[in-house]
Task: structure prediction
Amino acid sequence: FFPGGPEGGVFAVNVYNGAVQAEKDLGPTVEYVWSDWDPQKMIQQFQEVVATQPDGIAVMGHPGDEAFDPLIDQAVPKGIIVTSQNTTLPIVEAKYASGGFGYVGQDLYAAGYALGAESVRRFGLKAGDRAMVWGLLSQPTRGERTKGAIDALEEAGLTVDYLEIDSATNADPAAGTPTFTGYVSANPDVKLVVTDHGGLTATLETYLKSTGKGPDDIFGAGFDLSPATVSAIRGGWTDLVIDQQPWLQGYLPILQICLTKVYGFSGLHIDTGGGFAHKDNVDLLAPLAEKNIR
Result:
């Protein structure tokens, strides 16, 4: 099972906790493979895991169909059930759905678009306002969420500056602090920052404080709840977060593999949702976020 990020990292720990609960409830023996959100590492690790001949593998789809599909084509004939979470692999999912290849996660483009559109509406942004989107456009499929956010903002007439999350920041969000500080220093008129990464969203308060900004100076929007994000919402540092319920992205892929292995069920395509967290409802979600469930 691939939780995606670094061991104990924001978001990945929620996915892991869901998978561990499924392991306890359903009884399989599960090995966890940590990838630092690095698509190339995921590919290498997948090849290594296939060689061990497991009954099933639940993968993050960040490398995309072009890179991943040839390897999955080699794994499936060996009797290995493969399924995916967080980022879709639509071509190979369609090919092997009857054999248990499913998907658990958001509709990525729609989620990004929804966050961008809700930010414009909720914060009263108008044409000509400046927004920064910090995302992962370079990654096939995974970048669709970033694209959705940019499209929604540009359709509303905002000026959008895009920053690609570099590999160091992808693995350790604190490493992006100089990048954020440099951007805000060069663009003091920025009204909105969108972080398309759970780890970066959890670090928004740190980023903003590093620039000398207060909680009401720049609107912050991003993805995925965490204890740090809950604290930032309560303090006004983060204003809007879309919750893709990563715990389910851990639990349900293991359930998928077990259902296919034991009963022969085909792949299930499950959207884990796009509800918003903000100051008006954060107290309801906080107890679960603090347990790394929501």
